[in-house]
Amino acid sequence: MMEFSKLAQSVFELDRLLDQLRLLAESCGVPSPEHENWYALLKRKLIPQLSEKEFLIVAVTGGTNTGKSLIFNHLVGESFSAVDHRASGTKHPVCLVPKTAGTTSFEPILSRHFESFRLVSWSNAEQPLSVTEVHHLFWREGQNVPNRLLLLDTPDVDSDHEINWERARAVRHAADVLIAVLTEQKYNDAAVRKFFREAAEADKPMIVLFNMFDLNSDAQHLPRWLEQFREETGTKPLTVLVAPYNKEQAERLELPFYELQQDGSFGEPVNLEKILTELHFDAIKSQTLLGALKILDDPSTGVRSYFDTVQKSSERFAEALNILENASETEVNWPGLPVTVLAEEIRTWWNLGRPGWSQNINKVYRSVGNTILRPVLRKITGCISSYCLGMKDCSDPLEEFYNKEHQAVIEFISRIIARLEKISETDNPVLRREILELIGGEHRAALFGRAHAVLSSLEPVDNEFRETLHHHLTEWSQKNPKIVGWIRSLDYIATAARPVITLTFAASGFALGAHVVSQMISDVAIAGGVTAGGEAILFAGSENAQRNIAKLFRKIQEDYVLARSKRFYAEFHKELWRDVLDRFRTGAGVTESEIFRQCRNWTVPESVS
Predict the structure, then answer these.
(1) Which residues pair with 507 in a beta bridge?
(2) Which of 376, 516, 540, 596 is most buried when burial is the number of CB atoms within 10 A of its CB?
(3) H helices of 297-355, where?
(4) Contact in structure between 81 and 73 (CB atoms under 8 Å)
(5) CA pair distance 396, 408, nearest whole angstrom
(6) Residues 486, 548: contact at Cβ < 8 Å?
(7) In 10 A of CB 1, how many CB atoms?
(8) Which residues is 505 bridged to in the sheet?
(9) Spans of all domains in the chain
(10) Which fold is adopted by the domain 37-297?
(11) pLDDT in tens, 536-591
(12) Displacement of CA 13 from its chain's centroid (Å)
């Protein structure tokens, strides 16, 4: 037996959670489920009827020109709905409520059951025929409506105007019992079948009524019509009635209704109102509520499919967020610092370790050497690079370095764009819009332009790198005192004996990825070039010592590449897509929220499942 209290508590909790989740879900591109069948049943059936269970809602439904309004008038015992022989006459539902002598206010009750409609007090039969975009529900008290019934006439379920379908579906969701009015022409209509199939899937109790029926000629066909309707819709009627075609009786509201017997015959006329009032109220309520609950809890089409959609969309946002947040790890062939620039920085560090007299002499020597020897040294460096690396001679190493860096930026942006383009191939409109606003059309050109501007604003060597460089060199010198002492002794001799001395550090160069060194330094030599009666080259000790120095320089270049690329990305991130990341984080965080977790954990109480 259904425990209404447990069911009500569970459904009310789901409704509360969904109201909060809907707002979160929209941030990751999932639209409101308000047009979904399960959501309509939740809002228009479960929530209202678990709040008040004292009324049974009965709706007269069917296709065009089946005589629904005529049947409705017979049911309520007065000419309430206009009988219009044109197709799609009734465009808005009409509701009659029982007379209660002012003890019950029906407006709040109807508002809960029919929240998508504007309630309008009925004044004349022409009102429901009006053409408006607004959904109206015309209602008033009926003279002959039983105390526990709310009776409705509905628009055609197969109207040429789709808005009428929406209104008919909304009434179907709220109804406890449907009177399915069929005719020979409409029992097998595709739109009619679909409407009642969806009702049957929700276990909606139905009374099938064949109208304008010829008791003589149609009787032999009724079993076939009925069987086909049942097979196509899955309907299991509470009972099957027929109403004969008789214009005079119809106008006097005196049409007889015959109930189909098990042997296929028709007995004496029955009272349609009495059939409704004798329905087992609690059983009908339980059946309709459990039917709505079954649709709501369906794994493939119910609320859980909505949760699946939210999770999938949030995960796509997380994927895009991961690409942008970890863009600095994108593997790119970022160039190392030019050898001449590195050598100059090392010379600066080396000079700090000289005695005061040596620093002063070398300061003069370097000034002179920069003026006289720089063109020669640049030529020598170019020759070394060409010999060791196959590189073309470059009059300005920094210019070549900048060109390589800009190419690295192009590669960096291109790889990120390619990954985002793949994610943008999604049916999620919000995610697609966010990505296209970042990389689409003119935005892409701006992305490259601003990236180059960020790169150009960075100094090739900043104080942070100098500190790192000096740290590495100082640490190395402390670990290799013999090599450093030997070099310094040569340096002192050269400083005292020669008018000009230049300390050069020749290395083969580097080809580095964003975080991977792809080529080892082949050789490092520390040489003192002297020019007073001859030339001399002094190598820094043994072959092991040279490898030791090469390892140091490799580490320095690795740190430089990592620091430079990350500095670029940090500035690039701050400049271009910080706001985008915030929106992506919001979308990606939906499935991590407490609301989503509670929604995922929601279950139908075992006592009613």
Answers:
(1) 524
(2) 596
(3) 303-325, 339-352
(4) yes
(5) 19
(6) no
(7) 7
(8) 526
(9) 37-297, 326-588
(10) Rossmann fold (3.40.50)
(11) 333 444 566 667 777 888 888 888 888 888 888 888 777 666 677 788 889 999 99
(12) 24
**538 neighbors 488 (Cβ within 8 angstroms):** no
Per-residue tokens: 419? 């990954």
d(CA 2, CA 607): 7
- Find out whether 47 and 305 touch, Cβ atoms under 8 Å: no
Cα–Cα separations (whole angstroms), residue 76 to 34, 98, 103, 505, 513: 33, 10, 21, 105, 83
User: What is the DSSP secondary structure assignment for residue 234, as one 8-state letter?
Assistant: -
Do residues 244 and 213 make contact, with C-beta atoms less than 8 angstroms apart? Answer: yes
- Tell me if 493 sits within 8 A of 538, measured CB to CB: no
pLDDT digits (tens, 9 = 90+) for 429-479: 777 787 887 777 777 888 888 888 888 888 888 888 888 888 888 888 888
Nearest to 247 by CA among 468, 86, 386, 67: 67
Nearest of 266, 275, 273, 274 to residue 244 by alpha carbon: 266
Let me know how long the chain is. Answer: 609
- Burial level of 383, CB count in 10 A (0-12/13-18/19+)? exposed
> 10 with 606: CB under 8 angstroms?
no
Q: Quick one: which of 20, 4, 1, 10 has its CA closest to 42? A: 10
Count of CA atoms in the C-beta half-sphere (13 A) of 101: 1
Which tokens belong to 418? 């390619």
Examine the pLDDT at 502 and tell me if it is beyond 70.
Answer: no
Contacts of 521 (CB under 8 A, 6+ apart): 507, 508, 509, 510, 550, 551, 553, 554
CB-based contacts of 279, cutoff 8 Å, min separation 6: 56, 177, 205, 238
CA distances from 164 to 130, 133, 149, 172 (A): 12, 10, 24, 12
Q: How confident is the model at residue 359 (pLDDT cuts 50, 70, 90)?
A: low
